[in-house]
Amino acid sequence: QVQLVESGGGLVQTGGSLRLSCAASGRIFSLSDMAWYRQAPGKQRELVARVTRRGTINYVDSVKGRFTISRDNARNTVDLQMNNLKPEDTAVYYCYAGDYTANVYWGQGSQVTVSS
Fold first, then answer.
1. Pairing, β 57-59 against β 104-106
2. How far apart are CA 70 and CA 77, in angstroms?
3. Closest by alpha carbon to 100, among 53, 58, 35, 55?
4. DSSP structural state of residue 24
5. pLDDT tens, position by position, 69-79
6. Mode of pairing for the β-strands spanning 10-13 and 110-115
7. Separation between Cα atoms, residue 99 and residue 53, nearest integer Å
8. CA 39 to CA 44: how far, in whole Å?
9. Could you read off the pLDDT of 44-63 as tens digits, one per residue?
10. Is 96 exposed, middle or buried (0-12, 13-18, 19+ CB in 10 A)?
């Protein structure tokens, strides 16, 4: 079993920055992909950024050039640096981890609110 604990998030004005962090504990040796998802009110949860254990990274088009995902396999953490935030980035952000036996794990969710 894997537990994911998130920190960060909050309220920021348009153009501001926030950083989300996620720390994994438990059977962390089996983790493959780690990622950040978000869910805005009335919308489906969407993938924001994903990083594989080997470091391959993908971003959703709407955050390219503004968000940076980073992973530290030694510390078992994954962070999301969010710059030039826009009101449409307002959502609950969830840390995600998958393992090599197809199990998935989620963090508790962190509110990010961007005011215009």
1. unpaired
2. 8
3. 53
4. E
5. 999 988 999 99
6. parallel
7. 10
8. 6
9. 999 999 999 999 999 999 99
10. buried
